[in-house]
Amino acid sequence: MDMKQLKYFKTIVDEGNISKAARVLHLAQPPLSQQLKRLEEELGTVLIKRYTQQWELTETGETLYRHAVRMLQDIKEIKQEISEIEEGIRGTLTIGVAPSCVGFLPPKVREFREKYPNVFIKVWKEDSSSLQQLLFDGEIELAFMLLPTNFQDYHVIHLPQNPFVVVIPSRWKSQFPKDTVKLKDMIHYPFLMLGPMKGYSMYEYILGQFHKHQFSPNIVMECKDISTLLSFVSAEIGISIIPKSDIYGSFHQDLTALEIEDFSLYVEPAILYRKQHRLTKAAEHFVSGWIGSEGQAP
C-alpha cells in the first residue's frame, strides 16, 4: 500500500463512485477499479461493497478512509513545510552574538521578524572566541563577533568600527573633570585588564597603546569576561578599557565611560559565516539585509 493507492481510494469515496473518481484523477475507469481490487487483496478485506445500483463503505473501508484523509493531509503539510523552509520563510535561524555586538542585532531581528514571522530564531551570547567554535561545530550559522586575526575560512560582512573607552566607577567621576581622558591619566589607578583570547590580539594592542606613549598601566587583575570585569569596576576595584558598545549592554548603572583622546585602537565587529557551509534560506534572507555594495554593512 502506498500514498498513490490511498489517494485513489479517498477520491473514490469522496466522489461516490469509480466513474466520477476516474474523471477527477484523469484515469480510465478499468485501471482505477484494478487499483481498488489490488488494495483490498493486499489488506485482505472488502473496503467497498458493490451492488448493481449503489455501493457502501464497509467498517474496514471507513477505518482506511479516516487514516487516508489524515495521512494525505500530513503529506501535504510536510511538502508545504519543506517548501517553506527551502524558501526561507519557515525553519530555524541560529545566531551567535558577542557582548560587544549585541547592539547591532535587535533592530535587524525586528525587521526580519516582520518579513518572516514563521522563522524561529535561536540566539547564543558568547565571547568571540567561543562563537568561532560554535560556528565550526555547526551549532550556529551566523556570528556577530569581533573580527579574528585569521578569518580566511569565513565570509565576512564588516560592521561599523567600535572605539574603546575607559570605564570608571561613577563615584570616581570627580577625579576625572572632563568627559575625555588621556592614557597618562590612567596609570595612577588600579587597572583591570581585559584578558587575552585565543585568535585575538586585543590584549597586546591595548598594552601597545600604553607603551607607544611610554606608559605602563598598573594592572592588578585580568578577566576575559567583560560582564564580570564591569562588575569589578562597579565595585570600585579599578578602571578598565573596553569596547564602547559593551558598556551600553551592561546592567550596571554605577559606571561612567570616558572617551580616550590618545588611543587609536578600534575593534572591528563583523558578521561571520563559514565558507564551507551552505546557509539555510532563512540565514540568507537575514544576511542579505546587511550586505552593501562591497560586502559592508549598510
From TrEMBL:
Belongs to the LysR transcriptional regulatory family. Keywords: DNA-binding, Transcription, Transcription regulation. Residues 1-58 form the HTH lysR-type domain. This is LysR family transcriptional regulator. It comes from the Bacteria. Signal peptide: none annotated. PROSITE patterns: HTH_LYSR. It comes from Niallia oryzisoli. Gene3D superfamilies: 3.40.190.290, Winged helix-like DNA-binding domain superfamily/Winged helix DNA-binding domain (1.10.10.10). The keyword Transcription applies. InterPro entries: HTH-type_LysR_regulators (IPR050950), LysR_HTH_N (IPR000847), LysR_subst-bd (IPR005119), WH-like_DNA-bd_sf (IPR036388), WH_DNA-bd_sf (IPR036390). It holds the Pfam family LysR_substrate.
